[in-house]
Amino acid sequence: MTPGELALASGNHTPVTKFILQGFSNYPDLQELLFGAILLIYAITVVGNLGMMALIFTDANLQSPMYFFLSVLSFLDICYSSVVTPKLLVNFLVSDKSISFEGCVVQLTFFVVHVTAESFLLASMAYDRFMAICQPLHYGSIMTRGTCLQLVAASYAFGGANSAIQTGNVFALPFCGPNQLTHYYCDIPPLLHLACANTDTARVVLYIFSALVTLLPAAVILTSYCLVLVAIGRMRSVAGREKALSTCASHFLAIAIFYGTVVFTYVQPHGSTSNTNGQVVSVFYTIIIPMLNPFIYSLRNKEVKGALQRKLQVNIFPG
């Protein structure tokens, strides 16, 4: 039985009005070090992604669908990292690590929206690379500004739909105590662990929709890149192959990191990992990955590096 079911069996029917985010309380000696490290990572995340967005919007050589999607990816990274990290940083500094019931609903809602939207955006980026490399003659007529906006809107639509389903699935359950959440933010698995009811149906809903929003984009991505690799293999130009592989390698690395951690957290069987391992993996995809993405794309992309060099030369050595 879960702690919530035990509370219900013992006759404790007091509705929960707040949750206690235990976070990394098991490591009291590391609180200051963790605060400093996570604050630095979050600062780099915000500055790096804002810088990537500003560079793309202001450089004439980066006005293509690929970089438009990359700017949206940077926006999503800032959003879902900001849903989680500021509260975590505050909890390192205060003794009251609680979050209101309503605040927990809002945090989970916005987190699922942006993580799901990123999953579908990565699929849109893979489709863009497929069109650019496999259908170059039709690329300009198909991947228009309108098409790109529609793909971003669809990503957010899927995010909103999945968030409504997942958040409703969790908070339709009763919570009557205990309220000690073994996590640093309101996430679905630890919340289900506290519910004062049988959660088997809720877990099935979690696995089904988590699998759908993970595996459907992954299928698009894998199909696109299989076709892309075939097309690259047929290229006669060595320079063309290197450029195509460089662009795709950055995207594929970001995809592998993102989907690997999400699958580990949400699609695995219940009870197959410890709370500590779950928190470590969550830190990776909520805090580390948003920081890494700008570096993954910029360090392996000659056009981004060239645009950055031009901006630095204009600003540092004007005239």
Automatic annotation (TrEMBL):
Transmembrane segments: 33-55, 67-85, 105-127, 148-165, 204-232, 244-267, 279-299
Cross-referenced InterPro entries: GPCR_Rhodpsn (IPR000276), GPCR_Rhodpsn_7TM (IPR017452), Olfact_rcpt (IPR000725)
Keyword match Glycoprotein: no
Molecular-function GO term, any one: olfactory receptor activity
Residue span(s) of domain G-protein coupled receptors family 1 profile: 48-297
Record-level GO cellular component terms: plasma membrane
Topology with respect to the bilayer: Multi-pass membrane protein
Record flagged with keyword Membrane: yes
Localization (cell): Cell membrane
Keywords: Cell membrane, G-protein coupled receptor, Membrane, Olfaction, Receptor, Sensory transduction, Transducer, Transmembrane, Transmembrane helix
Family in the record: Belongs to the G-protein coupled receptor 1 family.
Protein name per UniProt: Olfactory receptor
Organism for this UniProt entry: Sapajus apella (Brown-capped capuchin)
Taxonomic path: Eukaryota, Metazoa, Chordata, Craniata, Vertebrata
